[in-house]
Write a structure and sequence with these properties.
By secondary structure, the protein is an alpha/beta fold. It is built from 14 helices and 7 strands.
Length: 367
């Protein structure tokens, strides 16, 4: 389609992102489709995309699908070029069924979502110390998960293993168990259940040992906990001062908030992001709230871990739990209240200036 605008006309852009190409579209101030075009997902392609959009008028904002994945670098280029970037969710299934699915359709839909005000999210900038924290945590976390999976598979096999093999490992702690299984000799004939089980257990045990070595090497080479501490201090000085917050949970909360936590307009917005905003569940004479199953589940898990630590070691939290239990609240409801209050403290720590030190307020979780 040809452009009918002049250089002073306001336009809005939309981009449907993919691994190798991005499809861009521009619309005018009343939503009319002006033009769409495909660009390669490269640095030169991103720059050409920005120049092409600006050739149709005054570029007000660009809606980008997948700013946390395929559109991450494009969002950085657009921001560096002084263009407002809006994070756009993909159209829901009902809209796709009604209007169809294609790259131009999705690109125009992204632009329309920004123009109409339906899409307002500010993407993570991913260009600072918080992104470094996120990257440092990735390799170690995946290795820890794989090691846990290997251990679970070992225990699962031992449950149904022949009695001779099961008795050989009874009462052994994890270290001794892995060492014993790694030394098993299944033989060459694996047609029997005993030999096959020995072979499988030996492979899993040696995989566990290899992952143990990898995790140790990652920790030693990067000195992960030692490095995360200063990085967290640099990004949010008062975050580690909160009771129950360590380098791992702080790193996850920072990664969820991003390098630009100001994009979260309020404490309530962060609570929604972390999945701890209370959801009304009242009916008739019953007035209550329930757990929130949405949001960033990794951030929710970090808040859950902090709550567990406080419930065990913080006297104020233990007293609060006892009081709310006497009031008839269940453990889930009490945990929900605690996580909501912790989210309030974390939000203040994340958004406080580096020169200020956040202080914890008296425990008064939200109902």
């Amino acid at each position: 389609m040809t452009s009918m605008t002049h250089d002073s006309a306001e336009i809005t852009g939309g981009v449907d992102t993919h691994g190798l190409t991005h499809h861009a579209a521009v619309i005018d101030s009343v939503g009319r489709h002006l033009a769409d075009r495909e660009f390669p997902a490269t640095i030169h392609g991103y720059r050409d995309l920005v120049e092409w959009m600006r050739s149709h008028g005054w570029l007000v904002a660009v809606g980008v699908e997948g700013t946390g994945a395929y559109g991450a670098e494009l969002a950085r280029v657009l921001t560096a070029a002084g263009v407002a970037v809006v994070d756009v969710d993909r159209p829901d299934r009902k809209t796709r069924r009604m209007k169809g699915k294609s790259d131009p359709v999705d690109a125009y839909a992204a632009a329309t979502a920004v123009l109409s005000g339906r899409a307002t999210g500010t993407p993570k900038s991913r260009d600072g110390v918080v992104e470094a924290v996120r990257v440092l945590r990735t390799a170690r976390r995946s290795a820890v998960k794989a090691r846990t999976q290997a251990m679970n598979q070992i225990r699962g096999l031992l449950v149904s293993a022949p009695a001779m093999l099961r008795e050989q490992t009874t009462g052994l702690d994890r270290t001794a168990l892995i060492q014993t299984l790694a030394r098993l000799r299944p033989g060459y004939d694996l047609s029997g259940p005993l030999a096959a089980t020995r072979a499988s257990l030996r492979r899993l045990a040696r995989r566990h040992q290899a992952l143990d070595t990898e995790i140790t090497e990652i920790t030693e080479i990067t000195e992960l906990d030692a490095e995360l501490g200063p990085l967290v201090k640099q990004a949010a000085p008062s975050l580690l001062d909160l009771f129950g917050v360590g380098p791992e949970t702080a790193g996850q909360l920072l990664a969820s908030a991003g390098d630009n936590p100001e994009r979260m307009r309020s404490e309530a917005a962060f609570a929604h992001l972390a999945g701890v905003a209370p959801i009304p569940a009242s009916s008739g004479r019953t007035h209550r709230h329930r757990l929130n199953r949405g949001g960033d589940r990794a951030a929710n898990n970090a808040l859950h871990t902090i709550a567990l630590v406080r419930m065990r070691y913080d006297e104020r939290t233990r007293a609060y739990v006892q009081r709310r239990t006497k009031e008839g609240l269940s453990k889930k409801e009490i945990m929900r209240c605690l996580k909501r209050f912790i989210a309030r403290e974390v939000y203040r720590a994340l958004t406080s200036k580096p020169t200020t030190q956040a202080t914890q307020t008296d425990l008064a979780p939200a109902a």
